[in-house]
Amino acid sequence: MTVPVYLLPGDAGAASDFAFLEPMLGRRRDVRALDRSPGTDGAATAALVADVLGRLPATPVDLVGYGAGAAIALGVAAGSPNIRRLVLVSGRPRDIDAARQVSAPTLFVAAARDVPDDDHALPPHTARVRIDSGPAIAAERPAELLRYIEGFLDGTVLEAMVP
Amino acid sequence: MIEVDTVIVGAGFAGLGMGMRLRRRGDESFVVLERADSVGGTWRDNVYPGVACDIPSHLYSFSFRPKHDWSRFFAPGAEIRDYLLDCATEIEHHLRLGTDVLDLRWSAGTARWHVRTTGGDYVCRTVVMAAGRLSEARMPEIRGLASFPGEVVHSSRWDPQSDLRGKRVGVVGTGASAVQLVPELAAVAGSVVVFQRTAPYVVPRPDFAYSADDIRAFADDPAARSALRSDLYWRSETGFAERLGTPGFIDRLRATALGHLAAQIDDDALRERLTPRYEIGCKRVLLSDDFYPALARDTVTLEPSALVAVDGATATAASGAAAELDVLVFATGFESTRPPFARRVFGRDGRRLADEWDDGMVAFNSTTVHGFPNFYVIDVPNASLGHSSAIVMIEAQIAYILGALDDPAEVLEVTADSQAGYVAEIDARAAATVWLGGGCASWYVDAGSGRLTLLWPDFAYAFRDRLAAFDRSAYLTTSL
């Protein structure tokens, strides 16, 4: 059974970052995009994490953090036992302590033309894939991103297939 | 009677690709039967003026036989045909040209297919049907057509010698062939009348010639060429969101098409006649920068209704408008959803494929059919795309078939349940698409059942991932 998927956008907001992902993931599962709460501009990561934790249900969910939302998603997964699977896209999560506390299986999608692969703090059970794009993966390669996220959430094996 | 492991029917992209992959892995015991005198399928048949592909050339070619020197972003038809002639050299000794298949019959006793052809008979374990989906010209029945004194030609049967200078030409249809053909005809003919049943959506065609530097770079750096292919592929995939009618995506595509029309057609009445009344993507979205300008010429008339009758040289449209013509060109497409080859295939217990497909084509994984052991079909059903390259789909099917051939079972037949489950899934996914909900009639949809039987109703990657491994649990297997 699939659980709801919560999407945390980067600085551009959900309407921009998830214009493609939200409806496409929504074809076969329950998807909610969480924009930042009003008045949280410039807030510290800890405050943003607390805000998201307060808005999630007390039941299992899948969580996708995109861009700046990836660091927030990592903090959320460290602070909640209800994150079933975690997807971090194109962000720069750097909180090593938070990463250690995450037990959920994690997918990290990196933009090949962004930063070196080792410049991130990632949970112990992390599968990594790279997409040949700049940091704006959701705009440059949305369908490829969808394929990895759907495959990961479905639990099917990811095989790199080059057309 | 010649015995081989595998008979492949058809030497277009699908049949050649299947043969090449067999040969490359060391298989020797196969033939490719082709009824015409040369290979190339669609790209051999279609030689009308202006014929070209509307999928980028680096994506409309085999990943396992890349070509670095495509001349243009969208290849002209003749260049694709030359590419396929080159491909065919890999399997030259396996080609049987001028060989029309009369029938194929499964013999349960020997677990072999018996293939009768105009060039002798074959017995084989496996049949791969690669006869294509755009092979049989579709000609509408027009009252009195036999009385027309001039030349009557279908776009896929073009005579390169025909001279239309100064002639009065009628063109029936406004699909993918017509939008390429009409500008070429308008440039030489005395006058052209275009009979339009349904207005197409047309978007700009961002074509360009690759420079000598580009081509050298692709030759020197295969990784750059491969990265380009990958980029073209993933860009095209985004287009499926449009076919689902996703807000934003389909709105931008529609605005692009209607903006193109507004930019190219000044005349209000003509623009009105060229404005489609159904949702974009329901019929194939066409790419052209010169179709609308051709229609705006003084010598070209757009008749906004179908050709219904011919009486001598007079062609009459449904609207009642009539024109005197010297030549009639039918750009009316192909028998896509009811392939004639199905009438020649007889499976287990003598069942005929055309009868099994009486309510529209069905298969498991778009490749195997219950009742037809060791039989594989490429291109149909539900293996075509409205948003990306057919070659991507063909390659996925070829790889799947190679997996089946590696299976130790002597006989493989997909179960009825597996097939029914797949078809139900196709129908459920198709229901969400603009192809069924867009308010048009198209060659993607089976006219009898109303089912979407030609197109795969999802992203191409979903098809490739699904067919990536041969799933023998869906099959009844028999070992001898």
Structure, described:
The complex is a heterodimer of chains A (163) and B (480). Mean pLDDT of chain A is 90; it is low at 159-163. Chain A has seven helices and six strands, in the order βααβαβαβαββαα. Chain A is an alpha/beta fold. Chain A has a six-stranded parallel sheet with strand order 2-1-3-4-5-6, sandwiched between helices. Chain A has helices spanning 14-17, 21-25, 45-55, 68-79, 96-101, 137-140, 142-154, and strands at residues 5-8, 31-33, 61-66, 83-89, 106-111, 126-131. Chain B has two domains: 2-136 and 335-478, FAD/NAD(P)-binding domain; 145-200 and 239-330, FAD/NAD(P)-binding domain, CATH 3.50.50.60. In chain B, 30% of the residues lie in helices and 18% in strands. In chain B, strands 1, 2, 3, 4, 5, 6, 17 and 18 form an eight-stranded mixed sheet that branches. A five-stranded parallel sheet of chain B has the order 7-16-8-9-12, with helices on one face. In chain B, helix 1 links the parallel strand 1 and strand 2. Chain B starts with a strand and ends with a strand. At the A-B interface, helix 7 of A face helix 6 and helix 15 of B.
